[in-house]
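ok here's Major facilitator superfamily (MFS) profile domain-containing protein:
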Amino acid sequence: MATVKGSDHQQLIKRVTWVVALGVLLNPLNSSMISVALLNIGADFGISLATVTWLISSFYLAATVGQPLMGKLADLFGPRRVFSIGMALVIVSSILSVWAPSFGWLLVLRIVQAFGTTGAFPAGLSILRSVSRTADDTEGKSSASSLGLISIAANVMAAFGPTLGGLLVAYSGWQSIFWINIPIALLVLLLVFKWVPADSKNPPSDERKSVLHMIDLPGIVLFSGMFTSLMLFLISLGKGTQWWLLIIVPIAAALLILRELRTDKPFLDVKMLASNIRLTSVFAQYAGLNMVFYSLFFGLPLWLGQVRGYDPQMVGLLMLPFAGIGVLTTPLAVRMIGRSGYRQPIIVGSIVLAIGTLLLLVLGPHTPITIILFVFAVIGISNGMNNMGLSTALYSITKPEDTGIASGLFQTFRSVGSIFSTSLLGLIFGGSVTTSGLHIIAVVTAVISAGLLAVGCSRRLT
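and the structure:
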């Protein structure tokens, strides 16, 4: 690929950045829009809430596996090719989801959609890196600007996904949250073919033959089996508890650890987790934070729709302070870090989160909307603080040569927290959505928030 200089290379980087940003936003968009569509989907297919929440947990489990998998495939087969295949998977799965004949089909298509959307981030960053080097701008200001735009796009979509989803479901039914992917993914594909340079020549055939070794398929299977068994066990509690599943979990965990210690291409880098306690603590905090966030992110719309009787459009609007204020508090967290280090926003965010989750105990069937908005806003304030603080802690604690692996594990633990949140919702709201159930979730998330605060205050662990 020839080196491009001057205004031409800046234009190339800008175009590729917009293409990657459009592709990346599909993942947070699809993970957040569905929060206001769960009740409608459950009613259409005649299934319980515990069952319909599998649309969430399966998405995050697939994303956990998909991101490192698609990243390795991008290295082996070319990022442009993998990025394009991801967009094609989104288009096909979205079209078929609209006409899914059963919930089982919808669940499978949702998993395919997760793999398609999650490939955009690792493949997209590889494309950007390649273009920057071609443009004689290796990891320079243009690259930093590009990453900033992609991050903003992802955060904004995650924040406003429920609001957009509420509008779509209210006027066009739950199928519309799948329809909206099609024009976006088609546009991205068109721009990929028009603007993104072709991949370099294919890797040697012996590298392709080693693809199964590179992606650590046994590790992926054991990891997926462990978490699927654990989720099924948690959901079964109190209603025909499936104790045999609890036997599978430690066996799968032990086999996973043994496997990952022996392979040179681990899916889950156990050696890194064992050698750096402070880094492992950051991962654990991030998993706990996301368990709290997603328990409320998906649980509150269910309560607003089932108990308060609001339509999806109103639910989406009420969720705006919860998800959106975090975008506004992120700059404040950045200033805190610059002045006092990363621990301050973690501690402040955890305190605010604990207060906000406890305030959920005042909510009931007749609570004024102003009080609901206030409580949601308090919780929302903590989102930007905690996320920025832990992200900075990750890069401060990690050795430079381990940054790539640590970043991947960071996202893995985010998905782990999300998966546990859906298990909690299935356990508490499995029979029916009630205010007492919301209060149980409030207590559980408040206890987790207090734990996050305790760990954040410990200089030995953070």
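+1. Residues 49 and 430 are 5 Å apart (CA to CA).
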